[in-house]
Amino acid sequence: MDNFRGPLKSDCEELLGRFQATESVRFERFSAIWKSTNFSSIFYGKPDPKERRHFARLALSVVSPYFHPPYTFQIRVGGLYLLYGLFHTQLCTPKEKIRIALKDWKDVMQFQRDAENAQHHDVVYIFKKLMSDKAFLFTAMPTMLFFRMKREDGKGKKICEEFVDPPTRTQELVTTDMLEELANVHEHYENLKKAVFTDSDPNVNLIEQCLVSKLNNAVIAYSSWQDNHTVKAEQLDAGEGPSNQDSSRRAQLLASIKSRSYGHVMEASKARRHRQLQLVLSTDGDHTPNTSSKKKRPPSLKKRTQLRFKIQGTEREKLTNATRLWNLSKVKEDKVTEKKKQFKWTPKPESDVT
Amino acid sequence: MAESSGVTLNENVPVFEYTDVSSKEFHIGAFRDLWLNALNLDVYSYSDTSPEIRDVQLIEEMGIEPETLEELKNMCSVESLRSEHEDTDTVPADPQLSTLKLRKRRQEYKESLTRDHIDRHEAYANELEMICVGKKPEDLGDLVPEGELILTFNVLYPVLFQRFKHVRAYQTLNVLGSQKLTELKDAICCVSDLQVFGEFSNNPDTVPQFISKDHYKSAFFFFNGTFYNDTRFPECRDISATTIDWAKTRDFTEFETAKMEDTCFHDLKMKVGFPYYYTHQGDCEHVVILTDIRLVHQDDCLDKKLYPLITHKHRVVTRKCSVCHTYISRWVTTNDALAPTDPCLFCEQCFRLFHYDDKLNKVGDFLAYAYVDPGTFN
Fold this sequence. Notes:
Number of strands of chain A: 2
Strand content of chain A: under 5%
Structural class of chain B: alpha+beta
Largest interface: A-B, 71 and 80 residues
Distance between the termini of chain A: 24 Å
CATH class of the domain at 146-313 in chain B: Alpha Beta
Helix content of chain A: 40-55%
Strand order of the largest sheet of chain B: 8-7-6-10-11-4-5-12
Shape of chain B: globular
Distance between the termini of chain B: 54 Å
Strand order of the largest sheet of chain A: 1-2
Order of helices and strands of chain A: HHHHEHHEHHHHHHH
Order of helices and strands of chain B: EEEHHHHHHEEHHEEHEEEEEEEHE
Oligomer: heterodimer
Radius of gyration of chain B: 28 Å
Helix content of chain B: 10-25%
Strand content of chain B: 15-25%
CATH topology of the domain at 146-313 in chain B: Structural Genomics Hypothetical 15.5 Kd Protein In mrcA-pckA Intergenic Region, Chain A
C-alpha cells in the first residue's frame, strides 16, 4: 500500500501546480481543475473496505503536509481545498479523518487569521465547515509512528521547490530588532572606547564605524538581487536568446559527426569473425543506471556452441528434439509455461509504453 | 510573520526527536490540557450543532451578509467536486491519474492469479472492527467523556524462533488516558499465559486445569527508566528487582519502580513511536510501542467498558496434528521413538490411539506435554 505514495504525491503535485498557475485562491478555480482531472475517481476500484480505508488514510496523510508551512499561502489554500475534496469524496463510512498535530495548530490558527484578514471568504468558510463536520483528529504527531528505522530513499520527503517561497534567511537573521540591538551595542562600545582612551588611538579601531548601516544596505541589496534574479530566470525560459541558437547549432553538428562515426562498424577479420562487433542502437538515448551498471559477461562456451550450431542449420534442432520415449503417450496440449510473475510496483520503461 | 528563534515551544508539545521515527518525551496529561485549552468545546464534542445555528455563527464570525453565505454555500458545496461516474468499484477506463494507472495494473495482476481458498479469518477480522466502531453504550455512565485521550499501543509478539524474526507480528490496543496500566496488562493476549506445565505421558487423563496466567501473575512495564510492577495479588513478585540490582553494578542511571495499578496513562511521560517493554511470566518479553495519542472523536467507540479495545491482531497459522492434519494439536511429544520428528504434534484422538494400547498402557518411551497452539487467539 505504501507503493501508492509515489503516484499519489505526483498526482497531488500536478493538481497543486495547476492551481498555482491560476494565481488565485478561489475555490471555483480549484474545483474546475479538480473536475477536469476527475480527481474523485482516485478512490475508485477497491471493493475491499479495509483497503479503501487504508488508502483514504494514506491519501489524507500525503496531502496534509501541503497545508502547513513552509509552503506558500496559495499552496496551503490549495492543500486545504484538496483535503476538503478528499475528505468528502472518500468512499468509506465512517469517514477517515484529517490528523493535526499540536505543534502545527498554531500555524493553522495563524493561517486562518491571515485568510480572514485578507477577506478570503471561501477559504474561511471551507475551513470552518471542515471543523464543524468534525473532520479533524487532534493528535500528538502528524502520522502514526512505528519506529521505522529503515532508511527510505528520501523520495517521499522531497519538498517541491516551486511550492515554497524563495529562502529569506538573510532577512530572517537581520531583522529590524536585531539591527536596533546591534546599533545600541555599537554605541555603547564607542562610548566605552572614548571613555578609556582620551585620544582616539588608531590601533583600537578594529571594526567598521558604520557597521549597522552597511549591514542593512547589504541585506537590502541582496534581496533586490534575489528578486531580479528570479525575474531574469523566468525571462530566459520564455525565449531563446541568440547565443543559445549558436550553441545549439554547434551541438547538432557535433552530434551528427559522432553518430556517423559510431554508426560505422569495422568488419572484423576472418579469424575474429566470431567476435564480430554489433551495432546496438540506443532506443531513447538515456541509459537507466540499472542497465549500464550491469557488466556484460561474454557468453559461456556452451552458449557459444549452441549459437554456432543454430546458425549453421536446423540439424541441431532436430537432434535436440530427439524422440523421448517416455513422452510418447503424453497428450499434446498447450502448457501454460509462464511462471507466476511477481507484481512489479515500479514498471521498467519498456513495459510502460501505453 | 517570521518567528524569532528565541521562542521555544512548551516542553509538552510533542516534536520529533528523529523525524518520522519517534518523538521526544512529553507528559501525557499536560499534552491533553494544552489541546483542550487551544480548542473550543464544540470542536471536539459529540453533538453536532444544527445547521441554522451554524449559519448564524458563521455570519457573525466572518462578518458577512446572509446572501454572501448562501453564495458561498453554493460555490463550495461538495457536489461541485463529485464526478458523474457512479460505479465506484471499478477503475474508470483510460485513467489519467498515475494512482489509478497503478491500481489498474495491480487489479489486472490480481485477477490473473488463482486463489485456492477464501480466508474465513478475513471475514472475522472485519467483524471485529464492525462491532466496536461508533458504538454508544446503553448506560450513559459508561460514556467516554469528551476530551478524553485515546492511546494506541502496538504490542509485538515475542520472537521465539530466530528464523521468524523478520515478521513483526503485533496486536494493536486502544486505551483511554484515564485507565490504569493494569487494564492494558490484562488485555494483552499472549499464548504463554495459557501454558500448562508438567509431563503427562504416564497420566494423560489428569491434565490439570490451571494455566500459567493464574500461577505466575508478576509482570512489569518499563517506560522511560521506571519499572511499573503489578502488585495486585500476593503472589506477584517484583521481577524487576534483578534488573535494577544488575544495573546498579554497571554504569546505568538509577532505575525507579512504581505500582502499575496506581498509575494511569495521564501520569506518564512517554515518547511516541519509541519501543518500550513489557514482561510477564518471568521471561516472556514483549516490545510495546505507543504509536498514537489523540483526542476522542464522535465516531470512535464511546463505550468505556469496551476499552482496552483490540483493533488489530496478527493471525498466526494454527498447527494441526501431524497424523490427521485435520484437528488442532493438543499434545507435543519429545524423545518419541514412534514419532517421525522431534518434537511432534498430535491431536487428542491421534495421541491416544498412537501411544496407548487397548488397556491404556503406554506404548514405547516418550515424554508428552500439553500444547497450546499460538493461533488460539484468532
